Amino acid sequence: MKILITGIAGFAGSNIASDLISCHPNIKIFGIDNFSRKGCEQNIDLLNAKGIKLIRGDLRLTSDIDTIPQVDWVIDCAANPSVLGGLDGQVSSKQVIENNLLGTVNLLEFCKKYQAGLILISTSRVYSALELANLPVKLIKDRFEIDNPNIPGLTDQGISESFSTSAPISLYGVSKLTSEQLILEYSYNFDFPVWINRCGVLAGAGQFGKADQGIFSYWIHSFKEKQPLKYIGFGGTGHQVRDALHPRDLVFLLSNQIMDPNFNAPKIINIGGGIENSISLKQLTNWCEERFGANEILSSQEKRPLDAPWIVMDSSAAQKAWKWRAKIEIYKILDEIADFASSKSNWLSLTS
Ligand SMILES: NC(=O)c1ccc[n+]([C@@H]2O[C@H](COP(=O)([O-])OP(=O)(O)OC[C@H]3O[C@@H](n4cnc5c(N)ncnc54)[C@H](O)[C@@H]3O)[C@@H](O)[C@H]2O)c1
Question: CA-CA distance, 111 to 340, in Å (whole number)?
Answer without folding.
Answer: 37
